[in-house]
Amino acid sequence: MGRPWVSYSGGLTVGQYAGTVALRDDWIRIAESTERCDRPTAEAAVRQAYRVAGLDAPDVIVWMDSPLGGTLASVVLSHHTAPPTRLWAEVWDGLWDQLGERVGPDLRDRLTEQLWGQLDERVWARLPPGMRAQTDEHLWRRLADQVRARLEQRLGDRAVAQLWNELGALLWEPLRDQIEFQLVDRPGFDLWDRLQHRLGEQLWTQLEGRPFPWEHGRQLGPWSEVYWLVLFTRALDIAGLPASPRLAAVATAVRAVGWWWPMRGAAVLTDRPTALHRDPQGRLHHPDGPAVAYADGYALHAWHGTRVPADLVTGDGWGPHRILAERNAEIRRCAIERRGWDRFVVEGGLRQVGRDHRDPGNPGQVLRLFDLPEQLRGLYHQPARILVVSNASADRDGRRRVFGLPVPADVPDALSAAAATFDVTPAEYAALARAT
Amino acid sequence: MAILRTVLDRAGVGALGVLDSEIDVPVLTGAQRQGDVIVLSRPQLAPATTPLPASGVQVVRAEASSNTHTLHSWDGTCFFDADPTGGDAGLTLGTLTVPDGASAYLVHTEEHGANGIGPGTYELRRQREFAGEWRRVAD
Question: Does the distance separating the beta carbons of A280 and B63 come in below 8 Å?
């Protein structure tokens, strides 16, 4: 039984559906933007979000160029004291070492110079003593609870659950799978978790008598918040509830900035990436450089959605020795694909199974089957052989592409392997009249 | 039979870089392959009943928007029933029926050019690879 005064009683209308898709696509554009932030507009939007939430706008705004820079700035702002305590000095030394190991001394020095260049005595004097409390609780988390409560009050738990399902079906894959899960650099952010582990909990307890900042304060950003922003905004509208000014203010700020860290009295804002590349399936990918790059030099490298070391996708990539020495099977597979199976079967000394077989319908080209060497047995979850095939037509650049396709290890010869990739009998595959 | 340029023009696909656009595209009734799509003669299947629209139909969902396989009718109307279930192995794209007197062209918008298909009923399939389990080859 629906309630007559409510605009949602299960099942989105055509208009509600279209409105959701339009807002979703608008946010995808924002999340994938590589435009420089308009900094005055961004700062004004962040200050407004504080005010609408009933908080004092921050006096100090620090800008960094990347999420890594932003993380560094947020940790320093929440823990630095002037003059520094002995404990903080130890923590800073630990941070310095970890950063150097993780991203190299050049980027570390750039990040720290950029940060300390903005933090002079005057700035420290303006920071309130209790500024360590981070405010994302007020700005965002409690807001999320409020919105949900309003919806449940209006529609009832069951209708809200149904609305969530309906909106989730439209939003989850493009906004969470494609944006948050693909783009958020968890390895970069876990630097601070590792640091905490290394320095020991005791130190942090002494330092502040509270858990590590990462546990209770966190960043906001278009990549992590986009799903919830669209979901809440649409849900309120569909339920016939008035728009939430607080939600709108946070959304406006998230639109205008990359990652940001709201704290009491201060906010750390970061600019957007300078480049972002995906493959046609939407996975983070760049074959010859960073898949995501930031102005300070921080970058992520990815091969069809798998994070890989920078040198795997720069220059000549990994050679056979480096590939065989890699312990992570997924990364090893990426490195081989980058090098090309046609090269790797020769360099890696893969043993050919049977002879070359003419490629049916593809005159002049052959099918070749190879066994994986001992070191690569774990490349796939099940024992596999590699079928090496050539395209029947050249690419636009005139080169003929050569592929390596894994097939089950019990496939006896190259023709059977090619047939198995189309689930046809070897006889039917052998009778192919033409391939293009 | 038509030459490749005529087929591509009618399919609304621009000129190709490396392929010789004056080559003949043979119309065949046997099995053919276009990259990772295979056309298999299946006279025992029930004929398809959905007419191909004049603009053609995309047989591979546009994972790669710039790289798709499309089917077009020639000298008559062909029929294509898409199979969203993928059939037993998850590879089946659908059933194509080319009536007598007509032909169909499978056109690839990038490097593979076009394949001409003569009268008969066919199954179109995608290629797969075995990465611990079988999965479709990403186009």
Answer: yes
